[in-house]
Amino acid sequence: AGFTGSVRQASRPYPQYTGVNLRGAHGGITSYHAANISAQKRFGGGLSFLLAYTISKNIATGRGYGVFGAPGVSHEGYGGGRVRFLTPYDRPQNLALTWTWQLPFGRGQKWGADASTVLNHFIGRWRVMGWHNYMSGDPIDLGRVNRTGRGIGGGVSHGAYDPNGSQKNTLNVDAFAPENRVIGFADTRQLPDVRKFGYSTENLSILKDFQVTEGVRLEFGTEIFNVFNRAQFYSPSFSLANPSAFARYRNTALARIIQFRLRIAW
Fold it and tell me: Which residues contact 81 (CB under 8 A, 6 or more apart)?
């Protein structure tokens, strides 16, 4: 008696209760499947490679409160049963490459084997190492929205995206509409075939050893992170409340970083 609220809330078995706090409840199940492939090769001349590739899928199943969503975000608008969805950190493609090369210069090497002590200090004991990572983007979680039937593409590809260009939104905001709160059903939360920007980076390290005495060694090195200065975009907003910022990438992680170091070992 005296109940006031939406039709959705009135249709519940106990409409006077608007929420239940859960503590340590088993609200869902996660499932991770992956295939890992790795290859290692040592060549002559101090060159070696290590390649690792993972193809995977990370799925969660839950109902009521989203297992991996924001607190209070319900999945019941999908029909009340259990819902399967990709976890926010699902990255189906992951490629990692590391390599190291002892440059063949200086005493005991292919070139400069008979170098003088002074010359060997300059051309000998150089090492170059690299480690590179390439990963798929995270799934896009739109919250609780409805599709309008329009195309979801924003007209710009990830590779050609320019945050300062005329086309700033990677998704078409008119393709989605807010959930009808009166009826209380949404037909979309995640996009099955569109993801956020992927992650690609190449890093390089150059090292030089100086054998000062028999027991003292000086190591000079430089590390270059994100060699090609790739833009690593942070996740944008996918809120329909702010159409101008919807699916628009603005902020990025740090650009190329170069650092030098000097180390003495004895």
Answer: 63
Helix (H, G, I), strand (E, B) or coil at 240: coil
| Residues with Cβ within 8 Å of residue 28, at least 6 apart in sequence | 60, 61, 62, 63, 67
Q: Which residues pair with 60 in a beta bridge?
A: 30, 85
Angstrom distance (rounded) from CA 222 to CA 203: 11
Q: Mapping DSSP to helix (H, G, I), strand (E, B) and coil, where does residue 195 land? A: strand
Question: Which of the residue ranges 142-146, 180-184, 254-258 would you say has the lowest mean pLDDT?
Answer: 180-184
Give CA–CA dist 248/238, Å, rounded. Answer: 8
Residue 101, beta-bridge partner list = 47, 128
Please report the beta strands in 187-256, taking only residues with DSSP state E, as ranges in sequence order.
Answer: 188-195, 199-211, 217-225
Q: What average pLDDT does the chain have?
A: 82
DSSP secondary structure letters along 242-256? -GGGBTB---B----
Chain segment 104-138, per-residue pLDDT in tens: 887 777 776 777 777 777 777 889 999 999 999 99
Q: CA-to-CA distance for 140 and 118, rounded, in angstroms?
A: 59
pTM above 0.85, yes or no: no
CA atoms within 13 A on the CB side of 108: 6
